[in-house]
Amino acid sequence: MTFPKNFLWGGATAANQCEGAYDVDGRGLARTDITTAGSLNQRRQVTYEFPDGTTGKGDKVPKNAHGAVLPGEYYPNQVGIDFYHHYQEDIKLFAEMGFKTFRMSISWSRLFPNGDEEKPNQAGLDFYRRVFEELRKYQIEPLVTIWHFDTPLYLEEHYDGWNNRKVIDFFVKFATTVFKEYKGLVKYWLTFNEINNTIQFLDMFGDSATEKDYQDAYQQLHYQFVASARAVKIGHEIDPENQIGCMICGIANYPLTSDPKDIMLNRHVWEKNIFYCGDVQCKGEYPTFAKRLWDEHDLALDITQVDLADLKAGTVDLYTFSYYMSNVVSTHNDPDAEKVSGNFVMGLKNPYLKYSEWQWADDPLGLQYYLEVVNDRYHLPLMVVENGLGAIDKVEADGKIHDPYRIDYFRGHIAAMGAAIDNGVDLIGYTPWGCIDLVSAGTGQMSKRYGMIYVDLDDEGHGTMKRSKKDSFDWYQKVIASNGTDL
Ligand code: P53
């Protein structure tokens, strides 16, 4: 098992889940700032305040709602782990682990508080410059996601968010600003985090999605594809050194049985959930099966000739993805079949796999499978930019966190990456998710921890924010020092 010499070992975070400081130095509200903590269902029931002072709940931003920060509610993303004020200390710990790269995102509303301003907020620009310079001090290569779920709330409320073609221009302006501002400091960029979630999650919650949901989701996605492609083209013009990637939520799907109907369903699930977005972003055009997907829901999409030319001109340099788990699909509606009940995934239970406390399947071979599939399909350098085990960690009597379960999870997945590399896969980097504990995207919990670094903070926001090393910290340090040979 040989990892390439300059393999980019590191870790991954996102602004909305770790920065906090949501109202500091001119930052505007992002849609992620107004989601409360709790289980997925509770979390989707966001509370909004309307201009007449009344409040309402919903899982989408209702028209005319004001970003509400209501007394008595706790909004974990507003606090994050206060990376905004701890970044020096945190980066020092990443350097101690031996990170070659660090994945982070830029908060759109820190640079453009409403999203439609002419000029960016200087204090926001200065913050990221300080962070990038700090990383450079330790020769850590930044890997920067431009959009990680946190569209400025103002754009959601006043422009209807990604349903509106105008938002493409606001995003392109934001992207152009960061490419220009951080030229020479940042070389690796990702345009949209887990872009495929928009359609992938539609039917992962049972059959609650309406035809309008499908229409909206495919339309939003088209605007994001165009926004991404235009950003890629501009990013290359500003600095030909830039390496810009797509980012796909990579769930490996399997058929439950050998019934050809299950095999076909599985193929179609891969097409819809995984290849639809990857093909557009890597090949610059919609795949043949797009028509089937659109026809299934009678969609009428606003796609212009100029858009199609933009997609062609803005293909990505890298294919990156997150990988946490695999999933099982079937046409056999056996009422007795055991379902996976965890947040986000509504598939069937795989009897060959272990499941996490949140019911995510631990499946290293699924990662190797995924890597080999996308390597053959796109012939682009690959990066696994998220991977990890969300688990409850306990501070033991000796004051430390012993997390052998997390080490086991990483060991299996790193070995799987090594096996894929041995089979010729062009994998260039690995940034496990939440290398430092942070707020969960799916549940808003701090207690769903991924980190090698522990943060003393609970689900209600109590704690000292003190950072400490878990056992996985020393283990990962050794893995990096041995370039993946000492697992
Ligand atoms: P949390 C679902 C399935 C796979 C990846 O997720 C997902 C999600 C959304 O929850 O999202 C990515 O925090 C995402 C991160 C997120 C991470 O996975 O729900 O890019 O922002 O934190 C882990 O456990």
Automatic annotation (TrEMBL):
UniProt entry tagged with the keyword Hydrolase: yes
Q: Which Pfam families match?
A: Glyco_hydro_1
Point out the gene that encodes the protein.
pbg3
What's any GO biological process attached to this entry? carbohydrate catabolic process
Under the heading Gene3D superfamilies, the entry gives: Glycosidases (3.20.20.80)
Hydrolase keyword on record: yes
Species for this entry: Xylocopilactobacillus apicola
Can you name this protein?
6-phospho-beta-glucosidase
Q: Which family does it belong to?
A: Belongs to the glycosyl hydrolase 1 family.
